[in-house]
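Cross-check.
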Amino acid sequence: MIRKIFAVFFFYITANFFCQQKVSGTIMSENDMVISSVLVVNMANDKKVYSNSSGEFSIEASEKDEIRFVKNGYERVSRRVYNVDISMNVVLIRIPEEIEKVEIVSVTGNLSKDSKRLSKIDKKEQLQKDIGLPKPPEKLREVPAELNRVLLGAAFGSINVQHVYDLISGKSRRQKRWYKYEDIQLDITWIRNRIDDEYFVKNEIPAEKILEFLEFSFIVKPEIRSYIKVKNINRVMFNLEEVIPVYVERLKENTKSTE
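Predicted model, tokenized:
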């Protein structure tokens, strides 16, 4: 049944592709520098493209469509299409950003002593939140297509052509895998920016195995990532302490099996 629905959608896509028009243009900064990798979205048909290395873009559009331009660190811009034959040149204004101070913690390996020091850091971060310091900009991500949403839309006579294509081509599945990998790497970076490598080495984890250990910790103790989300380094440390013996024992067993 699903294959039949996809077949109908495919012919629908083919029929619509030939009647679409495109609007093109260039995206520049306020200093007349080209800006690449800007997300360009047609709010009318949900088409999305990114500007190339020359700041140029081309997207399917019709007259009166709203085109939105989004890039991290810049003010969002919306433009209306009045003539698809006229180039749409856009200027993005950079948003002033405060650089967050990153404090590297050199730990001793003594859990009691280290936890007290880390608690002070947690309180400091909480104070920064309480006094209303600006939050870092959110990650701008294209929402992956979902089969149930596509089918629900079709049931009500609304077909999102781009989402159908994303599902058929496998783009949606690749996006989800990439976002998951990217989030894990960001969480690992957050920990390593706050705990010196010497701590892990003192606990029998070789420097080249730290990344692997942290990934292993997220699997054994998924709650670690929830503590990272709320920036509670103290709780992160307590959970890592429980995983270290398990991981070290696995390392020793692997070493014996290869000898």
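The first helix runs from residue 2 to 17. The chain has a mean pLDDT of 78. Passed to J.P. for a second look.
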